[in-house]
Design a protein that fits this description.
Length: 316
């Protein structure tokens, strides 16, 4: 008896979509071409056309429609593309046999989204650790411009470091790396290098504020306001390295995380903020689909070790 190619018939008499079609759909949506998808799956163009017809029948949507000489995805196809890709990746991970990790022969590139300060402070130790254990592994550091989790979800970023925010997806795995506190930083010879540091002296100077969203008020201003003080904002920048560069070249006061900016503050004068301590937790973030990946698990341990070793060597 010939089985319908689009469905599997269960013993109960109910039918369910052929899950093999998910792989075909994933490749079709990625390639946007029947011919290219056929080559990738090593099928004939006619077989791929028949598969597309079965997918259209199963989903009740044309999925790919002709536009000129090519095909374009329907809104339903665009909606399904990311979900289907994740389902196929998860299925492949489940069915892939677990193997011992051979670090000496591991050849892989990992993308880490983090701040310049993190790379400056912990990057050297991390690269040394990774290179010693897995010489074929390459790390690519990407500038962190926001706290969105989309890049972890779509796989363009393997790991991320930072402070958990309201835009961090609840599905993301999080592990604390270290606690950090904000300190004040000025150039050598700045008036604040001498004398007792009081809230009034600190607030009286001109400040450079770090904000990715160009917001010039934050927890420091709230703490000063509670004391009846307000600081003068000279400028707003998008990163701690830029704030420290301006502090180095002017009389602006930068307020930055201590451990995160250790290397960037060389040659500058740092002091504890004369207000209640502002502390943050810097965490490691990744997508749950990478939990069981042995190489990814190893890299997470490398990041944790690099942060711990750096803080111990700094006397933290």
């Amino acid at each position: 008896m010939k089985r319908h190619v689009g469905t599997n018939v269960l013993a109960s008499g109910m039918s369910t979509p052929d899950l093999n079609l998910l792989v075909t759909l994933d490749v079709l949506l990625a390639e946007g071409s029947v011919a290219a998808a056929a080559r990738r799956l090593r099928l004939s163009p006619s077989a791929m056309s028949r598969a597309l017809a079965r997918l259209r029948e199963t989903t009740g949507d044309p999925l790919l429609v002709r536009a000129g000489r090519g095909l374009v995805a329907t809104p339903r196809a665009l909606e399904l593309r990311e979900r289907v890709n994740h389902l196929v990746q998860d299925a492949e991970a489940i069915l892939r046999p677990a193997e011992a990790l051979d670090l000496r022969h591991l050849a892989r590139t990992f993308t880490l989204r983090t701040s310049e300060g993190f790379v400056e402070t912990f990057g050297g130790d991390l690269l040394e650790h990774v290179g010693r254990e897995a010489p074929g592994v390459r790390l690519r550091f990407m500038q962190k411009a926001d706290r969105e989790s989309a890049s972890l979800r779509d796989g363009t970023v393997d790991l991320e470091t930072g402070v958990i925010g309201s835009t961090t997806s609840p599905e993301v795995r999080v592990q604390a790396l270290f606690r950090d506190r904000f300190i004040g930083v000025v150039r050598p010879g700045h008036p604040l290098c001498q004398g007792e540091m009081t809230p009034a002296r600190y607030a009286a100077g001109r400040h450079v504020v770090v904000s990715r969203r160009s917001i010039d008020k934050g927890p420091i201003d709230d703490a000063l306001q509670a004391l009846g003080l307000e600081r003068e904002i000279g400028t707003v920048v998008g990163g701690f390295s830029t704030a420290l560069a301006l502090a180095r070249a002017s009389d602006l006061i930068a307020s930055v995380p201590e451990h995160h900016t250790e290397g960037l503050r060389l040659g500058l004068h740092s002091f504890p903020l004369p207000i209640p301590a502002l502390e943050i937790t810097v965490s490691l973030l990744w997508h749950p689909r990478m939990d069981g990946d042995l190489a990814h698990r190893w890299l997470r341990s490398c990041v944790r070790d690099a942060c711990a070793e750096r803080r111990v060597s700094a006397g933290s």
